[in-house]
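Subject: Re: docking follow-up (NAP)

Dear J.,

Thanks for your patience while I sorted out the input files. As discussed at Tuesday's group meeting, I've set up the holo structure prediction with NAP included as the bound ligand rather than trying to dock it afterwards. The sequence and the ligand SMILES I used are pasted below, so you can double-check that they match what you have on your end before we go further.
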Amino acid sequence: MAQIIVTGANGQLGRSLQVCKQLQDVRYLSHNDLDICDGTAIRQLLNEEKPSWLINCAAYTAVDAAETNTTLAYAINGRAVQTLADSCLESDTHLLHISTDYVFSGEGNRPHTENAVVHPEGVYAKSKRMGEVAVLNSAAGLVLRTSWLYSYYERNFFRTILKKCLEGAPLRVVSDQIGTPTWAGNLARAICQIVSNNQRLTGVYHFSDLGTCSWFDFACYIRKVAGTSNEIIPIHTSEWQATAPRPQFSVLDSAWTRALLHLDAESWLTGVEHCYNSLVQLKEGRYFHEEYK
Ligand SMILES: NC(=O)c1ccc[n+]([C@@H]2O[C@H](COP(=O)([O-])OP(=O)(O)OC[C@H]3O[C@@H](n4cnc5c(N)ncnc54)[C@H](OP(=O)(O)O)[C@@H]3O)[C@@H](O)[C@H]2O)c1
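The structure tokens for the complex came back this morning:
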């Protein structure tokens, strides 16, 4: 019987929680182990195990594909979260649900506070908001928003840019969307601290690394830590032709959350350095160029 259950444990945040090792008595469930759309399986699991916490890292995160896979995006990010919230209430389990800076429309240039008005655009953002509303209305737990999440695991901006840099490939990167990259290792540590404190919080909280930048700045800093010199060309959003809309300015103001929950944070630049160094370490000091050939 685990005290803590983590769903979506094979995603980049789930895997970052696993290496964090700060939490005891945790059962990590991948998509294969538990489909969060399977309400019967969720109810059975929670009724049997009655864990204190459920950390939901499962999500449909393909922002552009969500525009066409609408049904699936709403099922995973919206309706399944409602079921998780209802089941958590039944088993007296506290839910920590992860959400996104994309619930903001991106207007203005002031960081968004936890109680700022949301205006999601695009299917991914709207489906994530549906999940937030489910948790907030049920009061089954808290919503923790984060932004521009990356890690040394596959399929994220950091890995894509690093791969291109190591290949020496020229890159075109959007320079007019502003946000805060957040290393999943730092978010995982913050989550561990919240769960360890074991306060039964409800409502919305923000956690991201500190500072602001564009995707272009982010790519240039990855190039810097990787020590390569490939060309990176700044482009406008209109030149990228993504399927889904993205907020122009989605910086989260996390000062209130950090003060209230005594969470440490570091600058996004340090986060990139830590992520890169962890990747190098993971490869046991070997240069990891090989895997990109
Ligand atoms: N990535 C970002 O830039 C970003 C930014 C802000 C907030 N967030 C939020 O942060 C959280 C974690 O994101 P992440 O980047 O770690 O995502 P991720 O790497 O895409 O991981 C999501 C995980 O959820 C699993 N999953 C998908 N459908 C599922 C289902 N029906 N049942 C159980 N598991 C399922 C996936 O498994 P399969 O791959 O096998 O389907 C995957 O392992 C999400 O809530 C996301 O919305 C992400």
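A couple of observations from a first look. Residues 7-8, 10-13, 31, 34-37, 57-61, 76, 98, 100-101, 128, 146-149 surround NAP (CB under 6 Å). The first strand starts at residue 4 and ends at 7.

Let me know if you'd like me to rerun anything.

Best regards,
T.
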